[in-house]
Design goal:
The chain is of the alpha/beta class. It has one domain: Rossmann fold, CATH 3.40.50.720. The protein is 30% helix and 19% strand. It has a five-stranded parallel β-sheet, sandwiched between helices. Helix 1 links the parallel strand 1 and strand 2. The N terminus and C terminus are likely disordered.
Length: 121
């Protein structure tokens, strides 16, 4: 019996809606719930980016595994994202949240999810 590990498929998540998604942006990516979800999605082959108010060991680690991190919140950070994932710790007055809600109203194909909504899957 061989002990070599079989390579995992690029994406294990087979939710039909997720097939259209390429880029996810996490607002508040340094939080304990957000960083884990971001890492899983990165490992599944999605392009992942995120922002947080301050640099931390968590944001540095996420950068090391290939996730683009922006320190500070700016509406430009969400420009090319198909999905915006918002931490429940982030207020609606956040410039990225405002831009995401505006984009959502203009482009129904874009999605905005809160972490608590993701956990219900």
């Amino acid at each position: 019996m061989s002990t070599s590990a079989k390579a995992l498929p690029k994406r294990l998540i087979e939710i039909p809606e997720m097939r259209r998604i390429q880029h996810l942006h996490f607002i508040g990516i340094g939080g304990s719930g957000m960083c884990g979800i971001a890492e899983v999605m990165n490992n599944q082959g999605y392009q992942v980016s995120g922002s947080d108010i301050a640099e931390s060991l968590v944001t540095k680690r996420l950068q090391q595994i290939g996730i683009k991190i922006s320190i500070g919140h700016d509406s430009k950070n969400i420009a090319n994202a198909d999905v915006i994932v918002v931490s429940s710790a982030i207020d609606r007055s956040n410039p990225e949240v405002k831009a995401a809600l505006e984009a959502l109203s203009r482009t129904p194909r874009r999605y905005a999810w809160r972490v608590d909504a993701l956990s219900s899957w």
